[in-house]
Design a protein that fits this description.
This protein is an alpha+beta fold and 512 residues long. It is 41% helix and 14% strand. The chain has 3 domains: 88 residues, no CATH class; 95 residues, Phosphorylase Kinase, domain 1 (2-Layer Sandwich); 257 residues, Orthogonal Bundle (Transferase(Phosphotransferase), domain 1). This is Protein kinase domain-containing protein.
Length: 512
């Protein structure tokens, strides 16, 4: 039995260095089968004490061979020549276990950094790609829209001047001076490069749709042809996407409501407009509306006639403005149906509430309301006059108390009672001259009666009973001096649609 004693520690072969494994294999092949384990302890001690000594071999006769670090070749020779039974003591170094070396933090930082940066870069690339996609899509849409608008601009050669937004910012001092605001937008004062003052109206509520841009350009192209002294002239426009701005000529006196519902806007005098000015304003509005309905190549429905949309020049000439709500209508059409009720509460014709039907007669109804306001010097709706008694009196059968808060109902009631002059603004009746029907304010009872008759005709329940604008002009000009008396609207036969509109207005007011 062959024995190999490893001095210092007993280990397995896999722990031995490669050259010792070769030595042991050589000994197993060349040496005899049997050898005696002699002098094991002393030999191990000797080997461990001698640094250069690698192995000691003893045979059965106690012959010994010492092998140093340079004696690998001697081992082979001795083994072949001697061929005795012997025991070999080998000296090997203990296997050095590989120590665990922790990676320093500084070495791990690059890995941690990469682990965080790579997902971040992926997400950022995705977001940038998505943003670029939407940007290019939006840019393509805007370019296409601009191209269509330019084509329309070429197709419609009669469009007014098209301003840039930068020009409008400079001309309005960045929209700093607000003149007024309404349902359609806000109006700002501006000055063109040539020194002309303009009113810049920023329209609101438009969607970014191509067909709406076409309709808008077609409409202002039509308005550009409206050359009438009772129509505010359109100077220019700006259009981009859903944004629209109209530039009108500036009216020094402002809107009519500032002159008939209180002290004058300029504060120059303590009184309101005199009778002659009021009558001429009513005539001017009727003439302007007649031009829109009959004088244009294509009839125009304004759809929002009210004092706020009637401007006054320096000489108090009335001019109809704000075509943001207007709609074009073919000559062979008597009316058009709109998706929703448009206009201002109090000025909307009753049929608009029921059917949404808008026609020339709808504008006539609004004209009649404005005429009543001019004569009475008060607004169509005055909720300050509304009390709980009047609200309680409203019932399903249409009966009510005297509704002073609703000017048309109150005026009709006065007409039924034979007190037509009670409708007239008390300011106009002050300081009256006893020897004449004319007061210090130029008030003329005959003209007042004529104007009130016309107004009551214009606000009739049935559109067919309302006169055309051309006939209203003739009545006011005196071409037809005898204006027929309007029919009485007694409480029992009061128009149901007007009653429904009043009930709706009461509900709206009390719920807000």
């Amino acid at each position: 039995m062959r024995q190999h004693h490893i001095c210092g520690v007993e280990v397995r072969r896999k722990h031995l260095p490669a050259h010792w494994l070769d030595l042991i294999l050589l000994l197993e092949l060349l040496l005899p089968r049997h050898f005696l384990p002699a002098h094991s302890t002393s030999n191990c001690f000797l080997i461990t004490q001698n640094i250069s000594l690698l192995a000691i071999t003893h045979d059965s006769n106690d012959w010994a061979w010492n092998y140093t670090a340079t004696s690998e070749e001697t081992i082979q020779k001795s083994a072949i020549v001697r061929k005795k039974d012997f025991v070999t003591h080998l000296k090997v170094a203990l296997p050095v276990p590989t120590p665990f070396v922790s990676t320093p933090v500084s070495a791990r930082l690059p890995l941690i950094t990469l682990t965080g940066i790579i997902p971040f870069c992926i997400v950022m690339c995705f977001l940038l790609g998505l943003g670029l996609f939407h940007f290019r899509k939006r840019r393509s849409r805007l370019l296409q829209q601009a191209k269509e608008e330019e084509e329309l601009h070429d197709i419609l050669p009669h469009l007014p001047t098209r301003f840039s937004f930068k020009e409008l910012q400079e001309e309005t001092n960045r929209f700093s001076k607000l003149l007024g605001s309404g349902a359609c937008g806000s109006v700002y004062e501006g000055t063109l490069l040539d020194g002309r003052k303009v009113a810049v109206k920023v329209l609101e509520g438009f969607l970014q749709r191509a067909h709406q841009a076409k309709d808008f350009l077609a409409e202002i192209a039509t308005v550009e042809h409206t050359g009438h002294h009772n129509i505010v002239r359109l100077v220019g426009f700006w259009l981009q996407g859903s944004h629209r701005i109209l530039i009108y000529q500036f009216m020094v006196r402002g809107s009519l409501d500032r002159w008939i519902f209180g002290p004058p806007a300029d504060g120059s005098h303590a009184s309101a407009l005199d009778w002659r000015q009021r009558y001429n304003v009513a005539l001017g509005v009727a003439q302007g509306l007649d031009y829109l309905h009959e004088g244009c190549e294509q009839p125009i429905l304004h759809s929002d006639i009210k004092p706020q949309n009637i401007l006054l020049s320096e000489q108090f000439v009335a001019k109809i403005s704000d075509f943001g709500m207007s709609r074009l209508m073919q000559r062979d059409m008597h009316s058009c149906v709109m998706a929703g009720v448009r206009g201002t509460p109090g000025y909307i014709a009753p049929e608009c509430f029921l059917h949404g039907s808008v026609s020339k007669k709808s504008d006539i109804y609004s004209l009649g309301i404005v005429m009543l306001e001019i004569v009475a010097g008060r607004k169509v709706l005055e909720f300050s006059r509304l009390n709980t008694t009047a609200i309680a009196a409203l019932s399903a059968d249409g009966s009510s108390a005297e509704e002073a808060w609703h000017l048309p109902s109150w005026a009709e009631k006065k007409w039924e009672q034979g007190c037509l002059m009670d409708i007239v603004d008390p300011v106009l009746l002050e300081e009256s001259v006893t020897c004449s029907n004319v007061s210090a304010y130029g008030f003329d009872k005959v003209e007042a009666q004529r104007l009130l008759y016309i107004a009551l005709w214009c606000i009739q329940e049935e559109p067919a009973q309302r006169p055309h604008a051309s006939r209203v002009v003739k009545w006011l000009e005196g071409c037809e001096p005898n204006v027929p008396q309007p029919p009485h609207a007694s409480n029992s036969t009061k128009p149901t649609t007007l009653r429904h509109s009043e009930t709706w207005l009461v509900s709206y007011r009390t719920s807000n």
